[in-house]
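Progress report, Aim 2. The chain analyzed during this reporting quarter is listed below.
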Amino acid sequence: MGAIRSREEVGGKAHNLMVMQAHGLPVPPFIALGWKELCDLFGWPENFGDLGDRVFSLHQPDLADICAEITERVLAAPASVTQQQQLLQRCSALFGTSYHTAVRSSALSEDAAATSFAGQHLTELYVTPDHLIAAIKTSIASAFQFGAISYRLHHQIPVSNIQYAVVIQLMVDSQISGVAFSMNANGNLSDAVVAAGYGQGEGIVSDQVNTDTFFVSRATQQIQSVVQTKPTGLFLNQKALQLQDIPAEKQNLPALTHTQILQVYQLAITAEKLLKHPADIEFSINEKNELYMLQMRPVTTIHIQNLHILENTNIVESYPGVTLPLSYTFASNAYETLFRNCARFFWINPKKFNQNHQVFENLIAHYYGRVYYRLDNWYRMMAIVYHSKSSIQAWESAVGLPDSASQELKFNLWGKFKTSLSVVWLILNYRSGNKRFFKVFQENYTVFKAYPKEGSPLQIWLHLQKAMDKTFLSWPLTIVNDYLAFKAFGWLQILIKKYQISENQEFANEIIMGYGEVDSELAVVKLLELKDFINHYPALLEKFQQPSSDVLTAIQSNEFPAFTQLWENYLDRFGDRTLAELKLEAISPRMNPELLVDLLKSQLASNLQTRDFVGKQKKIREQALKQVYEHLKPWQPRYWIFKIVYHLAAFGVMSRENMRFCRTRVYAICREILLEIANKMVVSGHLQQQRDVFYLTFDEVKSYCLNQSQLQTTEYANKVESRKLEFANYAQLSLPDRVMYEAGSIPEILVNKTSGTHHQGGSGILQGVAVSKGEVVGEAIVITEPMLNADVRGKILVSRMTDPGWVFLMSQAIALVTEKGSLLSHTAIVGRELGIPVVVAVYDVTQKIQSGDKIRVNGSTGEVEILAD
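Predicted structure tokens for the chain:
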């Protein structure tokens, strides 16, 4: 293998092949003939002429005639006998005595970042030695054909002194060929695309044969396949390429295996790295199943300087499915305000936040009704706040991102030093800061509740805004807590491994289980206490056998005074806990107490007892701590290091859940206030019904409150009706977890590609992330839409994701499997509190498992197995 010759010497294609070869990619042997070598072989440009003095415009009338004249001159040019013999000797030495080659173009402006010349220059296949010179001339001539010259003029590439080169490459007798793009230029850039069909690649690029298309997620390497019937392939028949019939049994099979798809995908990603630009490649597979990479070139239509990345990991727990405009705009405003207020906690000059205002204004996005993180802006924001790769990696792990971009970030020493100092300061003030947060929250929550219900819309709005502003001043403490919780949990995992305490990946989870009082756990405990009370009073238990509306009437009419008091206390403390509770349009037990009746009925039908619920997690934690103290002794310094980190992590995880419940309560009281404003909008004729307010944006509600007299009564009603239709359509769509696109060109990715999805693992075995140990076999119940009254007793709950409101369903299940989640997601935390096996991040599990399937869940290995009937 010789040195890599420059693009100026041998053209783009040959240069790229040399780069590929130098990096060990599977490239068939080849010879590159540069411009100088072709000049020696054919006397070019003297024998061919020049277009510079004759071609001026793409639209000149004689352009086609000029191109035809030059093309004929090229084809008629004689070759130097000496140079021809030397070339044939080189070919024999490299390819052997009997060979076929492909003669490919390599113009000096070809396969560049801005101009690919794709399809403009001819390739000759299955070229024998006696036809080699003619094939080279045919390739050169294609550079002067009308199409290639028009391409140059269109892209403002000079037509004078055209410099050309060719590649002579050993022919691969392809059984399967295809192309791959490292980014899907026609849709979601977060997918790579592989297209493959039978026979030579010429059949694919010329659309002579049907192809299968495989979409590979760049984040997870999951594959979605569109498999077509492929009745024919393009193969060599004696001396010519011809379409031949494919055996019937192969026509509907995928052209590539799962392994081959990923191999091709990796080649495309490698090409992207080598080119430093999104790439497309051509590949072939011969009869021996050997994969060859024939060429690579940049995808010239994608500009990577300003990509927007939407990612629903973690945030889908809070905003599952379609989220209405009021919820989204309220959340967007909250995110912006929250992170702007973080400046003082991380010793950041507020001016830096102001300079990056577009980042903080766009931390989340609304895409076809779904809420996504704007992941590109999150990385920008994290770089401003944290100045630490390890901190960002801890955040990536905690939220469950399937891949990492932290390695691409660069930080200066002063930023790292300042971040380290701020971390020390935050740790020293950690517990006092969290204590202050909960104290201030109670004060602000009281302010929220004192809104002037009988006041004007303006008075109510001003009260809401004042309460929100005051609350958000202390809310950055939740970010501080998350930051330290993620860091400390990462440190805890490191120490467990370093001190050789356990090889169990879930051990860190087990020792923090049951630490302190967690609201999501307490909600279940208090619900079970209500259940115990009902079981102790036959009359009350009998009442709960009646319709839920009758039960609620009896409770509210004080028919059972002692129970009514417990009931009201529960609603006051936990009445906002429900499914998708951060969505303002969600209906909570506080709003509809019949939901709590249904929950209690469901619990009465189960065998779960308060002592069992609390005792299970206590036992797991005690066993884990016993193992710690067997390895670490108080006289050892590492004992105290471990103890400090352990308490820091456990306190952080506990506080994270309780702070999240505080957020739930704030959102709930804001929902109540906004619904009160909606009542006044109905009275004034601006809305037809109260819940129509959720189809308005936060700013539109504000505008009504501030400018009610200036608004036409039909203005909002018309918006609502239009958006109802729009969001009803959105609800029918299935969207990918990650969407990537260029700024200003949001793709219409309306449905996921289906028609055959490859699993991870073997047949019937799905792989996820283990977060709570244990192994069970049972019947699956798949729930894709939130239902508090779903019957999950004794079943394995399978869902796309969960939020803390699912705790009531999870408490009755024997195991939990979700498509989303991470070690520190709310699903994982609540599942560990319940002491049931939990596996998260199982790709597409709600599509692969159906209700009623018998499955095995292993919470230690992360395997979910679909068992035969």
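The longest strand covers residues 775-783. The two ends are 57 Å apart (CA to CA). These observations will guide the mutagenesis work planned for the next reporting period.
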